[in-house]
Design a protein that fits this description.
With 188 residues, the chain is mainly α. It is 90% helix and 0% strand. The chain contains four helices and no strands. The radius of gyration is 36 Å and the shape is rod-shaped.
Length: 188
C-alpha cells in the first residue's frame, strides 16, 4: 500500500474515532445519540465505500495501463527479434565465403537474442500482471478492514448506549424522597 493509501486509511479510522468520541461526549438523550450514531455510521460507511471503489477503479486502470505497456514492449521485442533474424538471414545469403562454423554461430546468436527478447517481454508482462493483481487484492483487503473497523465501532457504541439506558435513575424513588423533604419542611 502506498503512503497516500495509508494516509487515507489512517484519516478514515481517525475521523471515525473522533466522531464517535464527539458523539459520546455530546449532551444528548440516548435516543438522539443513537440516531446521530446511526447517521454518522452510515455517512462513514458511504465515505469508506466511495474511497474503496475509487481505489479499486484507479488500480484497475493502472493494471490495464501496465498490461498495455507490457504488451507493447513484447510486440516491440518480437519485431526487433524478427528484424535481427531477417538481417542475419540476409547477411547469411550475402556471405557465401564464410565458413559453415561461423554461419552456425551467427544463427545461434540471433536465436539466443530473439529468445532473450521474448523472455524479457514475457517477464515484464508477468510482473505487470502480478503487480495489478496485488493492487486489487490490497484494495479489497483495505475495504474489508475499513468495514470491520466501522462495524466494530458501531457495535461498541450500541453496547454503550444499552449500558446507559440500563443505568436510568429510579425517578419514582427520587420523587418520593423529594415529597418527604417538602412535607418535613412545610408541615401544613
Amino acid at each position: 500500500m502506498t503512503k497516500r493509501g495509508r494516509f487515507f486509511a489512517g484519516a478514515l479510522i481517525g475521523g471515525t474515532a473522533a466522531a464517535v468520541v464527539a458523539l459520546l461526549l455530546a449532551p444528548k438523550s440516548g435516543k438522539e445519540l443513537r440516531e446521530d450514531l446511526a447517521k454518522k455510521t452510515d455517512e462513514w460507511l458511504d465515505v469508506a465505500s466511495d474511497y474503496t471503489d475509487g481505489f479499486v477503479s484507479k488500480t484497475s486502470e493502472m493494471g490495464s495501463i501496465v498490461k498495455d505497456r507490457a504488451s507493447d514492449l513484447g510486440d516491440q521485442a518480437s519485431d526487433l527479434a524478427a528484424n535481427v533474424k531477417n538481417k542475419v538471414s540476409d547477411s547469411v545469403d550475402d556471405m557465401d565465403d564464410i565458413t559453415s562454423d561461423t554461419l552456425e554461430d551467427l544463427k545461434r546468436q540471433s536465436s539466443d537474442l530473439s529468445d532473450r527478447f521474448r523472455k524479457a517481454a514475457n517477464d515484464a508482462k508477468d510482473v505487470a500482471e502480478d503487480a495489478s493483481e496485488d493492487i486489487v487484492i490490497d484494495a479489497k483487503e483495505t475495504k474489508e478492514a475499513a468495514k470491520e473497523t466501522v462495524s466494530a465501532g458501531a457495535d461498541d457504541l450500541a453496547d454503550q448506549a444499552k449500558d446507559l439506558a440500563k443505568e436510568k435513575p429510579a425517578f419514582e424513588e427520587v420523587k418520593e424522597e423529594l415529597k418527604e423533604e417538602v412535607e418535613k419542611n412545610n408541615p401544613e
